[in-house]
Amino acid sequence: MVRDYKGNDFSMEDEQLAKGCKKWISATHICRQWRHMALASPILWSLIRIPGGKLQDVPFAQMCLQRSGSAPLVILVEKEAITRVLEGIIDLVRVHAEHVRCLKLVAKKTHEQLFHIDFPLPMLHTLELRAARAGKPRQHSISNPLHFPSLRVLALENADNPWELDFSIFPLLTSLKIKGRHRGAKSTATQYFGLLSTLRNLVVLELDRFPIPTQLAADRDITISLPALRHLTISHWPSHIRTVVDRLEIPSDANIHVTFYQSEGRPDEAHLVKHTITRLLCRSTATSVQDVALSRAQDPAGVPIKLSCCAISLTNWGGWYMEIQCRTSCLQHNATGFLPLRINFADWDVEDEVPSADIMSSHLSGFCQAVSSCQFKCLHFAGPSMCDEASILVEFLPRFSDICLLEMETIDLSGCISDLHDWHIDGHVLRLQRIILTALRSGSEGDYLPEALKHYVSCVLPESLLVQVKDQTSLLFDLPKELQGVVDDVEVSLLSDEEAMKRTNWCRHFGSDAPWFV
């Protein structure tokens, strides 16, 4: 008999199974042969996942550890652990320290919680420590980093002050992720510089709302070289991000993800965003520390990355949020490939009463100024939850006069087309070769779309047009006739409910599985 994790009978006709969804199952009645085989296979028990909220989690972990033998262990506390569970897991880790390869601990919002690892873990490759809140007393994490000679991946969230650690003993660290808003975690420029400058082998660096020493802004001589870096993620206010980016030598083949949070009372937001993005576009092409120094001496501005595709997604779910993906080739042909620059504009917190629309516009202006010379060839725009996509879209278009492909998926498709037509009449001419339009709501195309679309394409004269609608309406048959003689290649197709949900609910835009809002 097979049941799911909630104890319900599991059948092949299950709706989720039919859709290809994966789910945990437990076999409650199995033959003796399979039971003996499982007990004789230590590797089956080496991955231990527990929620951490129940006292039974510790005996379960102990049973798995006993059956795992000498197999490399992965121990993951997935949610906020209560004190006794966390203490019990650490005691078990101490006993099996020789075999632990990956360890993740999450602490609950209690003052007595400390993940104090004061014993050696010689095989430990990955360590993730996350405290659920950033307050006092501080969550002590690493008493002696020498206990982890094999450590390659380190992730800390609200876990002690990372700047106090001596990272020089982690020369082989390849991934560092630091997240937290610990108000008491203040670092000096020497600590901050010392942390990053010693990690020459870093491939992944994520700094999410991290504490930054303000005195760094006055020290222009500080340079941080990370020649192995391939993935950089920074999230903070524009002023803080600029402080870091100005001092990083970033390889030209690195994927960059920057989130600009909105800060109130800064009149220079647009300038800060423009400066930071310009700096990221003109990054170093050096592959070694010596090459970095030579490159900066010969060309301080760096070599601009040649971008050809810009994809934008806009939403106001719980606050204004925009993501922009800049690529070297079209999104439709390279959705999962190299992503040189990924930018988010977001609220710091949903409950913050910040005039987000005004600040978003300021950030957007800074981005447009920074990329005005990129000469993008295609623009993809998605506004699945907005009612004023057209006004935002028109802000972009003056900076994208060279595009040959325009793709839009919106709620109000008719309104967007009408505004684009008015914008064209005002003298803003786009020489489009292909237009792709997708209506994400049933009936949103209305009776006005054929007329508005005919007016617009008569002005732009694209070579091909693709319109995707949700309903089996007369558009499927009438639109090609309406545009006959105006556009050579006209196609109107029906968008399935599954595809529409994929774009609206999961933010998988433009018919691809490219990740958004991560």
Molecular structure report:
27% of the residues lie in helices and 21% in strands. The protein has 518 residues and is of the alpha/beta class. The protein folds into three domains: 139 residues, no CATH class; 200 residues, no CATH class; 126 residues, no CATH class. Helix 11 links the parallel strand 18 and strand 19. Helix 11 packs parallel to helix 12. The radius of gyration is 27 Å and the shape is globular. The N terminus is likely disordered.
Structure keywords:
21 strands, disordered N terminus, 14 helices, 3 domains, F-box domain-containing protein, globular, two-stranded antiparallel ribbon, 518 residues, alpha/beta
Global structural class: alpha/beta
What's the number of domains? 3
Q: Determine the fraction of residues in helical runs and give it as a percent range.
A: 25-40%
Summed over residues and divided by their number, the pLDDT gives a mean of 77
Uncertain regions: pLDDT < 50 for 5+ in a row? 1-7, 9-20, 285-301
